[in-house]
Specification:
- By secondary structure, the chain is an alpha/beta fold.
- Helices cover 41% and strands 12% of the residues.
- It has 14 helices and nine strands.
- The protein has helices spanning 32-46, 68-81, 100-108, 121-127, 137-150, 168-177, 193-200, 204-219, 229-240, 289-297, 304-310, 319-322, 327-334, 344-360; strands at 2-5, 54-58, 87-93, 111-116, 154-160, 181-186, 256-259, 264-266, 282-283.
- A nine-stranded mixed β-sheet has the order 6-5-4-3-2-1-7-8-9.
- Strand 5, helix 6 (168-177) and strand 6 (181-186) form a beta-alpha-beta unit.
- Helix 1 runs parallel beside helix 2, helix 8 packs parallel to helix 14 (344-360) and helix 9 crosses helix 14 (344-360).
- The longest helix has 17 residues, at 344-360.
- The relative contact order is 0.12.
Length: 364
């Protein structure tokens, strides 16, 4: 189970491609008492099977705005209450607010830290900016160095935009030089990104071309050993006919719980935007988690996979490891939960390319 906790949607920077709208980024936060209540209910659900893996992901907005006092209390609570459970903790941050106290806390409780960095300064500073429009590259790299000095390892998300076209080798070299493993995700036409899509958006062919170029750089690189979890998952999926990435789960709603700052339980973290409130399954301030889980099981969202399976998707050679792709990606394009991912044509090109590379190396 992946438990996504969003204590706040507020953020201290203003990325050009943010999937949340400005209206959603309020300073509302849930308190520690509420967070403990959520975790206790999850614990009770997992009690019959303590070996079931639980990933607790803190997300935002910018989750570090919740404050070190709150995290110190909640991590200690998790360590005590989930002692006999198979759990891990991670946090996804823009890194701008991290300091030695946060780093020491994360090291103490073995918290995995993911950050956002879009490559070298000339790219990063065009899209990850402050509210005044100033680039954040120098600040983030300062924080990367601080984490490295203290022994805290970082993973990274790179959001691919038009600014990366023709610069994939530059991006890859930069990440290798800084020894940062990363995912390369395309920009989504949602939230604030809608206002900037003409300057930053990608066509499906542009995304596929960049992803393929990046895969080859990574696949044939015998010198650098940085991780790319999306490519690794696709490659292993093609070999094993199984996938472990939420984007390609047969039914992600069996494994994901996302909690918004107001207590709403939503299909995944991307549904926390104010404009999508109507798709919440329920609210944990007025209902318990067990009752909400029952509603999930009979929802149209939960039954999406059946529609995908009965569609032309089932005839695709990659269906077993794609399963129609991300639920949100399909919905974002059509407003219909029964839709497959809008990235379908790009994924087919990427999957075909990776498949061919694996065959050339006699791995498939």
């Amino acid at each position: 189970m992946i438990l996504i906790l969003k204590p706040t949607l507020a953020c201290n920077i203003s990325c050009k491609y943010c999937y949340l709208s400005a209206e959603s980024k309020t300073s509302n936060k849930f308190d520690v008492k509420f967070a403990k209540s959520v975790l206790q209910q999850v614990k009770d659900i997992l009690a019959p099977n303590k070996k079931r893996r639980l990933k607790i992901l803190w997300h935002g907005g910018e989750p570090l705005l919740w404050g070190i006092k709150n995290y110190t209390e909640i991590f200690a609570y998790i360590e005590k209450e989930f002692e006999r459970y198979n759990y891990s903790i991670s946090i996804q941050t823009n890194l701008s607010l991290i300091n030695e106290d946060f780093i020491d806390l994360f090291l103490k409780y073995k918290v995995s830290v993911g950050c956002s960095l879009d490559g070298p300064k000339e790219i990063h500073d065009t899209q990850r900016v402050t509210r005044k429009g100033e680039g954040t590259f120098d600040l983030i790299m300062e924080k990367v160095e601080l984490c490295r000095e203290k022994g805290l390892k970082l993973g990274c998300i790179v959001v691919g935009t038009k600014k990366h076209i023709g610069k994939i080798p530059l991006l890859y070299k930069f990440m290798c030089d800084n020894n940062i493993g990363f995912k390369f995700n395309p920009i989504f036409n949602a939230g604030e990104a809608k206002k900037n899509i003409d300057n930053y958006g990608l066509t499906l062919d542009e995304y596929a071309t960049m992803a393929i170029e990046l895969f080859d750089l990574w696949f044939y690189d015998n010198k650098n050993k940085i991780n790319n979890s999306v490519f690794a998952d696709i490659a292993s999926g093609l070999i094993s006919k199984k996938t472990s990435h939420c984007l390609f789960d047969k039914n992600c709603q069996d494994n994901i719980l996302a909690i918004a700052p107001n207590g709403d339980v939503v299909p995944c973290g991307r549904f926390c935007d104010d404009g999508l409130k109507q798709y919440a399954y329920g609210n944990l301030h007025t209902e318990n988690l067990n009752s909400i889980l029952k509603k999930i099981k009979i929802s149209d969202i939960y039954n999406r996979y059946k529609c995908i399976e009965e569609s032309s998707c089932s005839k695709c050679e990659f269906f077993a490891i794609c399963n129609g792709g991300c639920l949100y990606d399909g919905f974002a394009k059509t407003g219909d939960f029964k839709s497959k991912t809008f990235l379908c044509s790009a994924y087919k090109k990427i999957y075909s390319h990776i498949s061919n590379r694996l065959k050339e190396e006699k791995l498939l």
